[in-house]
Design a protein that fits this description.
This protein has 277 residues and is mainly α. The protein has 13 helices and no strands.
């Protein structure tokens, strides 16, 4: 028993190290590949022969790349902001108000997120074209709501249900209506949950490819996943893998910075409700 207790920290540390290596190695390999050119791209060495930034310079000088980054930032931020606002209102109704069919409505919202994007593509295309929003960032932001709203509603409803009922009763005694109770009492308590769901929704919108490819036409409206896919070489068999990896690293860094900036809120949101009392 004593030997087992002494070995447990080492076994746990080995398991954690294995998970970290498994999770971070693809990103590390992308960084290494982005610093290679020519025949070096086919090398299996774990370290680059030299730290070359030629691929990064080529990507940044690529026509329309920075515009695509800006488009992704605008669309992802708009979709995330709208999704959080709508989900906050919906989660209050679904989590604090008792009405017939509430459970069925929650299941329906969750079922919407299970549909593949291809299944709703034609219908969304007709809707966006009828609204006159085809090839616009506004139309793309509306399309992204279909992806992120079901998830944010479901998660925020779970957090909303966990808020003590006594807080709502105390706010009602002070003369607060439902709207004031939501924004003055519940909203400060939901900040960790909003940060967690907001970052996950932003990442989903930032990385989305199919809707961005379908609902935008001109290069000045393309988002970054489509811009990376459009990087091409002399032929389909001569793809600029170094530039593709460099572009992938550049567009991943903002997400890493975002997660690091809100890591405390994310941890608080993920652990909220784990200990009751």
């Amino acid at each position: 028993m004593i030997r087992r207790s002494k070995l447990r920290p080492f076994i746990f540390g080995f398991q954690v190290t294995l998970v970290i290596v498994f999770a971070l190695f693809p990103f590390y390999w992308a960084v290494v590949t982005s610093m290679r050119t020519g025949s070096e791209l086919f090398s299996s060495q774990l370290l680059p022969q030299a730290f070359k930034l030629d691929n990064y310079r080529s990507v940044l000088m690529e026509r329309g790349f920075l515009q695509s980054v800006w488009n992704s930032l605008v669309v992802a931020s708009t979709a995330t902001g709208l999704a959080l606002f709508l989900s906050l209102l919906a989660s209050y109704s679904l989590g604090r108000v008792s009405f017939r069919g509430r459970g069925l409505l929650l299941v329906t919202i969750l079922a919407v997120s299970m549909f593949p994007q291809v299944a709703v593509l034609s219908g969304m295309f007709e809707l966006i074209r009828w609204l006159g929003l085809y090839n616009t960032l506004s139309g793309l932001s509306i399309c992204y709501l279909l992806l992120v709203v079901p998830f944010t509603v479901w998660v925020l409803t779970s957090f909303m249900k966990a808020i003590p009922k006594e807080l709502e009763e105390a706010a009602a005694l002070d003369g607060c209506g439902p709207i004031r109770t939501l924004f003055l009492v519940f909203l400060p308590l939901l900040k960790p949950a909003l940060a967690t769901t907001g970052i996950l929704a932003f990442i989903a919108a930032w990385n989305e490819f199919l809707f961005a490819l379908t609902f935008t036409l001109s290069s000045d409206k393309r988002t970054i996943p489509v811009a990376i896919a459009n990087l091409s070489g002399a032929s389909q068999y001569d793809l600029p893998w170094g530039q593709i990896m460099a572009a992938s690293v550049l567009v991943t860094l903002p997400l890493v910075a975002l997660v690091l900036a809100f890591q405390r809120q994310i941890v608080a949101g993920l652990t909220s409700g784990a200990v009751k009392g």
